[in-house]
Description:
Layout: H1 6-12, H2 18-24, H3 27-33, E1 37-42, E2 49-50, E3 56-60, E4 68-79, E5 86-90, E6 101-104, E7 110-113, E8 118-127, E9 131-139, E10 146-148, H4 151-154, E11 158-169, E12 176-181, E13 189-193, E14 198-201, E15 207-216, H5 223-227
Parallel strand pairs: 5-6, 12-13
Antiparallel strand pairs: 1-8, 2-3, 3-7, 4-5, 4-8, 6-7, 9-15, 10-14, 11-15, 13-14
Amino acid sequence: MAKETLQGALNRANPNGIADIAHAIALGDILTQHLPRVIRGQVPAIAALTSQAGLSEDRIVLPTGCKAGRIRRGWARSTGAAGALGELTVTALGADPGAGEIAVAPNGDIVTQANDAYTSVDVDYVPEKGKLVTLTGVVVVPGTGVCTLPLAVRTANTVKLVSASATAGGLVAAKTVGFRAAAAPATTFACLSTLGTIVYFAIADAVTLCNLTLIVQNDVPDPQALLVADNINHV
């Protein structure tokens, strides 16, 4: 007799084993991160945030555990100014949005240019897959803006800096996350290094300690591999 897979057991839906199977396949992660999401009628934050390129952007803040990896489609329903309505152009990853464009912000939120002043936007996006890691009280080397991530994080394929806050030093505040770079950013910014092993703060901000939230991709199970695995729960 052929062995039953977790997919088969899940399809049988034996109430005595559903909880074990949901745990085995990390069902919450699958539903949150492995399925495209459509959000409608979103109002990008009117309090504009300055982008890495010096542009003012309005932001749709996404849940910490469901940040955007890429946008499949954006649609503007209404504007408070002269923003073009209808289909929005999705920018390339790592680029700020221009007029009539929509983009993934460096921290995984979704942004439009502030001058468009959109008041209702629909977005179809694919979440960034990975595990959230929160670090507190991490040392930033004085005078350099360099925060070298712990070894376990450096080797876990860090893909996104979700948030960064300076907790000690010159300018103690939450930072705007900028695009990946090979050097320290401008004041009030923090960014992940090109290789994903360092978080850079502005040298002028004189940060000495920080708190970080990151998304790492190592050890994230493949849902397909889990579902076709043997049902070791025997339920």
